[in-house]
Amino acid sequence: MLEITESNFEKEVLKSDIPVILDFWAEWCGPCRMLAPVFEELSHDFKGKIKFAKVNVDENSKVANDFAVRGIPCLVMTSKGKEVDRIVGYVPKEMIKKKIEEIL
Predict the structure, then answer these.
(1) How many domains does the chain have?
(2) Residues 14-73: pLDDT tens digits?
(3) I want to staple 87 with a disulfide (CB 3.0 to 4.6 A). Which of 3, 4, 22, 75 is the partner?
(4) Which among 4, 13, 22, 29 is annotated as catalytic?
(5) Residue 81 above 90 pLDDT?
(6) What is the pLDDT of residue 104?
(7) Does the N-terminal peptide bond of residue 19 adopt cis geometry, omega within 30 degrees of 0?
(8) Residue 63 belongs to what domain range?
(9) How many angstroms separate the CA atoms of 53 and 47, rounded?
(10) How many CA atoms are closer than 13 Å to the CA of 22, on its beta-carbon side?
(11) What pLDDT is recorded for position 17?
(12) 74 is catalytic
């Protein structure tokens, strides 16, 4: 799983040739831990079509602030570096899958 930091954000997200879904999370967040295996499964389901990346909000607050993340878990879907959709809070796999398919 790709970890996004302030130093690799531009290369991995802004300059990505394919859409990116960012999982904003934190170690202490229970719903984030519940979402992690779902996010991992989806990354295998859509391999090569969309880039799955995690952003630890405690370690990369600038990236979280740039996306105005106020609650976690927060999935931000981007295309060509611009936000196209967002899901806040834990949601079932099928709901996330549907959003991803809408972007693709």
Answers:
(1) 1
(2) 999 999 999 999 999 999 999 999 999 999 999 999 999 999 999 999 999 999 999 999
(3) 75
(4) 29
(5) no
(6) 87
(7) no
(8) 2-103
(9) 12
(10) 31
(11) 93
(12) no
User: What gap in Å lies between CA 97 and CA 51, rounded to an integer?
Assistant: 14
Strand partners, 2: 53
Q: Which of these is catalytic: 13, 32, 72, 96? A: 32
Burial (CB count <10 Å: 0-12, 13-18, 19+), residue 22:
buried
Residue with tokens 């904003």: 24
Spatial distance between the Cα atoms of 32 and 71, rounded to a whole number of angstroms: 11
Q: For tokens 């391999």, what's the residue?
A: 47
Burial of 11 (0-12, 13-18, 19+ CB in 10 A): exposed
Please give the single-letter amino acid code of residue 16: S
Q: Given the structure tokens 């997200």, which residue do they identify? A: 13
Contact 22, 13 (CB under 8 A): yes
Model pTM score: 0.94
Is 32 labeled as catalytic in the residue annotation? yes
**CATH number for position 19:** 3.40.30.10
Question: Is 103's pLDDT higher than 90?
Answer: no
